[in-house]
Amino acid sequence: MGRLLLLSLLSLLSLVGCTGLRGPTAEAMMGSDPTMACFRRMNADPEARRVLHDKVGVGLDGPPTIQMLADKTAPTEEERQALVTFTSVRQACIAEGASYRRANMPPEVWMQIEGLGEQTTLLFARLYAGDITYGDYNRIHLEQTRNAMLRLADSDRQRAQAQAADDERRGQAFLQGLQAAQQQQYQQQMLRQQQIQMNRPVTTECSRFGSSVSCTSR
């Protein structure tokens, strides 16, 4: 009984002992997304970097610079053509990772990633049309990216909470099953003891004292 209880408690601890997110975070899943590898190749393109690096951050590590955020210029004709090419390649990169995302990411994660991609394409279209400046683009894109990352982090928290609630339910079911098994084991032991008592041979001993006879069974 003691060994059974110990093994059962160890199993319970392994079941509900972790309160964090099981499995990779959204950021970790994104790191393995073929789209990210395609983006790195895209951002390394010499021509795109030459024309758009200081404008929309092609090949830039980190957030846009203060000069990029304050840029009040609109694209030149050369830059507009570069935006067309860059957007086309970017959309191909997003499509490249679509099957991976659907196979490896929860819907709320891959929809956030692809939604940000669509927002960026729309921003490029407004920039191409001259509706916004480079500074407008960089500020809006920075805000959209920050909001998307916050939503992905919130998705991680929600999945961790859902897993914790599921662990609690399974833990309660496990304990109930354990209690039922212990009760059954106890009842079986009591039944065996009763059977042993019933099947035990009876020995009768008698003794005589004068004309009296005294017998004892055991």
Give a short overview.
This protein is mainly alpha-helical and 218 residues long.
Describe the structure.
The protein is mostly helical and 218 residues long. The protein has nine helices and two strands. Strand 1 and strand 2 form a beta hairpin. The protein is rod-shaped, with a radius of gyration of 36 Å. The two termini are 31 Å apart.
Backbone shape:
rod-shaped
Mean pLDDT: 83
Largest sheet at a glance? Answer: 2 strands, antiparallel
Order of neighbouring strands in the sheet with most strands: 1-2
Radius of gyration: 36 Å
Termini Cα gap: 31 Å
Coarse structural class: mainly alpha
Low-confidence stretches: none
Following the backbone from N to C, one meets helices and strands in this order, namely HHHHHHHHHEE
Multimeric status of the protein = single chain
Count of individual beta strands: 2
